[in-house]
Write a structure and sequence with these properties.
With 389 residues, the protein is an alpha/beta fold. Helix 1 packs across helix 3 and helix 10 (353-360) crosses helix 11 (364-370). The longest helix has 19 residues, at 178-196. The chain has helices at residues 15-29, 38-42, 46-55, 66-74, 92-97, 107-116, 144-156, 178-196, 209-214, 353-360, 364-370, and strands at 10-14, 33-36, 60-65, 81-85, 101-104, 124-129, 160-166, 203-205, 223-225, 248-253, 256-260, 265-266, 272-273, 278-283, 306-309, 312-315, 325-328, 339-343, 376-380. It has 2 domains: 60-221, Alanine racemase (TIM Barrel, Alpha-Beta Barrel), CATH 3.20.20.10; 248-380, Lyase, Ornithine Decarboxylase, Chain A, domain 1, CATH 2.40.37.10. An 8-stranded parallel β-sheet has the order 8-7-6-5-4-3-2-9. Strands 16-15-18-10-1-19 form a 6-stranded mixed β-sheet. Helices cover 28% and strands 22% of the residues. Bound molecules: pyridoxal-5'-phosphate (PLP). The site of pyridoxal-5'-phosphate has 12 residues, from strand 9. Pathway: Amino-acid biosynthesis; D-alanine biosynthesis; D-alanine from L-alanine: step 1/1. Its cofactor is pyridoxal 5'-phosphate. It is an enzyme of class 5 (isomerase).
């Protein structure tokens, strides 16, 4: 099979969908929405997603790293902004000057922030993250008292104001999991201890998308939503239906159609063989665009991911390559140049990111966040229910 030049495969992001999703989440939660735009807005574009979320009623933005938060400011995005990943090399002074809330996990980190802030007139904004059972970032329970005491001392010295205390769930997508109750109780313990230490944070927050929808008791003063704002289900199989619309469509042109005879094998390793005559089509996206190579597996060829062409599902046949995939057209001859919907909202007429996640043994978060490579991103701002053409 010869290699045609790559066509204009693209990621189409519907900003109206992000706005509408933010509005729905804000209404559902009934408390301020912290819109999470880390990792380039889960692949949707950080700055554009942030603006759409704010237009939809989000009061806060959040990123993982200080650098992402500074990039938002450099793009002119204003308003309350939280980040939670820092390193020894993080520029705490720049974050403070940009009015960014930085999360701190330990006394050592608070000491380093204090040193970076020396001589600054205005108090910086610090949020404290407590580990309530995820065992990832955040102060472990044994350190809460000393972290709160150090944070309070910094307030008294005029270095910073502790604007928030927060934590993060491990199992919010499994609402019946025992860890949820335990973590919420631990969070309440941390808040009581912080209060005893004299801290009066304005923002206590625990819930991600799944908890914001499924666990009202965890909403506190704000919810931090990422995946649901992009319209994807944070807890597939649970009662999360609030009318979210997926904002991302990945589309590419069909670049070639050819006939196969029974016995012809397809792509590297010849992992799929036609058992009867058929037609196949070439789609110019591969793992260079973030299409998971797992989308076709030797051990489960019938579970392969599919694309949509003319409203029909067309399964991937054979190994996903760097630049392209081959799909089964089942004897049909759609014209070269036909629109191939790799995934998108139902109205786009192809599979969903969730379908891809299931075919690839992953979660919808990974499908949209890893998508990119050579694809261009185009923003539309239409009725989110209209097909994207
Ligand atoms: C990514 C992230 C979120 C958002 O989670 P979703 O499940 O996408 O809503 C919230 N809080 C923290 C700490 C995160 O890392």
């Amino acid at each position: 099979m010869h290699r045609p030049p790559l066509g204009p495969a693209e990621i189409v992001v519907d900003l109206a969908a992000i706005r509408a999703n933010a509005r729905l989440l804000r209404q559902t939660a009934g408390v301020p929405l912290i819109a999470v735009v880390k990792a380039d807005g889960y692949g949707h574009g950080m700055v554009e997603s942030a603006r759409a979320a704010l237009e939809g009623g989000a009061e806060w933005l959040a990123t993982a790293t200080i650098e992402e938060a500074l990039a938002l400011r450099a793009a002119g995005v204003e308003g309350p902004l939280l980040c939670w990943i820092t390193t020894q090399h993080s520029d705490h002074r720049a974050a403070a000057d940009a009015g960014i809330d930085v999360s701190a996990y330990s006394v050592e980190e608070l000491d380093a922030i204090a040193a970076a802030l020396e001589g600054r007139a205005e108090p910086a904004r610090i949020q404290l993250k407590v580990d309530t059972g995820l065992s990832r970032g955040g102060a472990p329970r044994a350190a809460w008292a000393e972290v709160f005491a150090r944070a309070r001392a910094g307030e008294e010295a005029g270095l910073w104001r502790v604007t928030g205390i927060w934590s993060h769930f491990a199992c919010a997508d499994e609402p019946a999991h025992v860890a949820n109750d335990r973590q919420e109780q631990a969070f309440r313990d941390a808040l009581a201890l912080a209060d005893q230490a004299g801290l009066r944070p304005e923002l206590r927050h625990l819930a991600n998308s799944a908890a914001a929808i499924l666990r009202p008791s965890s909403r506190f003063d704000a919810v931090r939503c990422g995946i649901a704002m992009y319209g994807l289900d944070p807890a597939p199989g649970e009662a999360t239906e609030i009318g979210l619309v997926p904002a991302m469509t990945v589309r590419a042109p069909l670049v070639m159609v050819k006939e196969l005879s029974a016995g012809d094998s397809v792509s590297y390793g010849h992992l799929w063989t036609a058992d009867s005559p058929t037609t196949v089509g070439l789609v110019p996206v591969g793992y260079g665009e973030g299409i998971p190579r797992h989308a076709f597996r030797r051990d489960a060829p019938e579970a392969a991911a599919q694309v949509g062409i003319d409203g029909k599902r067309r399964p991937i046949r054979g190994t996903v390559c760097m630049d392209q995939v081959v799909v089964d057209l089942g004897g049909d001859h759609p014209p070269v140049g036909s629109d191939v919907i790799v995934f998108g909202p139902p109205a786009a007429g192809g599979p969903s990111a969730q379908d891809w996640a299931e075919a690839c043994g992953t979660i919808n978060y990974e499908i949209v966040t890893r998508i990119g490579g050579r694809m261009t991103r185009r923003y539309v701002d239409g009725d989110a229910t209209e097909p994207i053409r």
